[in-house]
Specification:
mainly alpha, 79% helix, binds protoporphyrin IX containing FE
């Protein structure tokens, strides 16, 4: 892991970023925050609806804008995150919050891919009536997604305090 971190820190990308001036890291951090706010803001609304709030709001209407916004936010967060990390990657060696955060992001992505393939999800986004225990499954989907992204947020914020 340390080798990978050292490689990234000495990469051409990191050299270029460090050479851009004193505002670069701050602007990347700002982009990271905008990405996180967009991602989590959208996810929070969708997940709370899945858990059972605002039942009169049609799920199929809500899915499109929230999924699109979360994809934009996610892209911003990943790109800015990798760039910030490359500035001084080796400093994060041994930081447990960093080591938890990255795999949990991966779990979050896998979770989204798996959810979108389930029959329950397809019925919900196509506006079809719920069958069997769809309602319970949607609650579980919303709660697990919230837990995953809250963990990522918490670890991201705590990295700097280790
Ligand atoms: C969607 C995914 C992500 C979320 C939700 C997220 C969340 C966060 C949060 C909440 C912070 C604290 C920001 C602050 O207080 O200023 C943070 C900081 C940071 N993130 Fe991310 N992050 C994500 C992806 C990534 C990725 C992929 C990387 C790099 C591989 C990364 C690297 C960093 C770094 C280096 C910091 C600064 C830590 C410090 O020194 O304080 N992030 N992130």
């Amino acid at each position: 892991m340390l080798e990978l971190m050292a490689w990234l820190e000495n990469s051409a990308l990191a050299e270029v970023l460090r050479g851009l001036g004193i505002w670069t890291y701050g602007l990347l951090n700002l982009t990271h925050i905008i990405g996180i706010a967009t991602l989590f803001g959208a996810i929070l609304v969708l997940d709370l609806r899945l858990i059972g709030l605002w039942r009169r709001l049609a799920l199929d209407d809500l899915v499109k804008p929230t999924v699109m916004l979360s994809a934009i936010g996610f892209t911003l967060a990943i790109l800015s995150g990798v760039m910030m990390f490359s500035f001084n990657a080796t400093e994060y060696h041994g930081n447990p919050f960093f080591y938890i955060k990255i795999p949990v992001i991966l779990v979050g992505v896998i979770n989204i891919v798996v959810i979108q393939r389930t029959a329950t999800w397809k019925r919900a986004v196509n506006g079809e009536p719920e069958t069997g225990n769809d309602s319970l499954k949607l609650k579980f989907i919303g709660a697990s997604s919230l837990l995953i992204w809250l963990t990522v947020l918490t670890c991201g914020r705590m990295i700097g305090y280790w």
